[in-house]
Design a protein that fits this description.
alpha/beta, Aspartate Aminotransferase, domain 2, Aspartate Aminotransferase, domain 1, 2 domains, 7-stranded mixed beta sheet, 14 helices, binds pyridoxal-5'-phosphate
Length: about 325
């Protein structure tokens, strides 16, 4: 089976497993796991943030990050198909009392005029106050689309001017970095708080981080424990992340090339594929998923008429070419 459902299906490599087995560990709830501390410091430094916090999932990193800048009863603005709005099962409302209003963009982009229209300043006991604006880069449900740095900078300037925070859901920021050559620190500079995942294209089995100021991270450490996310000798997992950062970032370019090849086979313009995700509109999407599986290729149904293919660490050039043949025949 060639599995193109998601870049979360990767298996840790032998080298990664060796790094995990050899990791120095301690009790991370006591702040004593040296491998976790090293990972947090490394990733905070990469994005120019003061500090970072290891979390089991990207969803938890997003929940902690958003709640650090949006109080209960306030709102965060985001694009309508953002992961925080669609795919975290209402966590920001359920746990943090945060509400959302959204703008719509078919490629998940920043629409600054729409943001300006939505933005609500403090108006006493009348309207929900906008405390933060969230962006997702690359954008999952917009087919891995990259948000241009210039747009992010304009948003940052606007947010600073109106006193709103910027949250960046950077689950796949590594893909945006490799696709555009934009330094990670430039992406880090547009956000007050952000989340990054090690378990997507980077191929670690588990793990994400929230990034932000020292104060925000100190508070997030308390909330992580409150949510049941205080983990013990978790350096075993952090070691997988450190290994992935050292060995699996630059190779994302291969995933992007494979995604273009698959796009072409599916009749999607490869120019519209920025990173490792290909979204294929099909009236008979469920049927395509079944028939592809019968022919040895697993693809995902992400809407009644949308098929999604995602390339990753576990897909070789040969796999991509074989999958392209199967998909072209469908
Ligand atoms: C995967 C993903 C997350 C986090 O997902 P988890 O499964 O909770 O780790 C957050 N944002 C985006 C854009 C994602 O693709």
């Amino acid at each position: 089976m060639i599995d193109l459902r998601s870049d979360t299906v990767t298996q840790p490599t032998e080298e990664m497993r060796t790094a995990m087995a050899r990791a120095d560990v301690g009790d991370d709830v006591y702040g004593e796991d040296p491998t976790v501390l090293e990972l947090q410091e490394r990733v905070a430094g990469m994005f120019g943030h003061e500090d970072a916090l290891f979390t089991p999932t990207g969803s938890m990193a997003n929940v902690l990050a958003v709640r650090s800048v949006v109080a209960p009863g306030q709102e965060v603005l985001c694009e309508a198909s953002a992961h925080i709005a669609r795919a975290e099962l209402g966590a920001h409302g359920a746990y943090s009392g945060v509400t959302m209003r959204t703008w719509m963009h078919p490629r998940g982009q920043v629409d600054l005029p729409a943001v300006q229209t939505l933005f609500a300043p403090e108006m006493g006991p009348f309207f929900v106050r906008t405390a933060a604006i969230s962006v997702e880069n690359s954008h999952n449900f917009a087919g891995g689309a990259v948000l241009p740095l210039a747009d992010l900078r304009d948003l940052r300037d606007y947010a600073t001017g109106v006193g709103a925070a910027v949250h960046l859901d950077g689950a796949r920021i590594w893909n945006a970095h490799v696709a555009t050559g934009t330094p990670l620190s430039e992406y880090g500079a547009i956000a007050d708080v952000m989340a990054v995942c090690l378990s997507k294209g980077l191929g670690a089995p588990v793990g994400s981080l929230m990034l932000g100021s020292r104060d925000a991270i100190e508070e997030a450490r308390v909330w992580r424990k409150r949510m049941g996310g205080g983990m013990r000798q978790v350096g075993i997992l952090a070691a997988a992340g450190l290994h992935a950062l050292a060995h699996h970032v630059e190779r994302l370019a291969d995933d992007h090339a494979h995604a273009k090849l698959l796009a072409e086979a599916c009749g999607v313009d490869p120019e519209t594929v920025d990173t490792n995700i290909v979204v294929v509109p099909r009236a008979d999407a469920a049927e395509v998923v079944l028939r592809a599986a019968e022919a040895g290729v697993r693809v995902a149904l992400v809407g009644p008429t949308v098929v999604r293919l995602v390339t990753h660490l576990g897909i070789t050039r040969d796999d991509a070419e074989r999958a392209a043949k199967v998909l072209a025949s469908l």
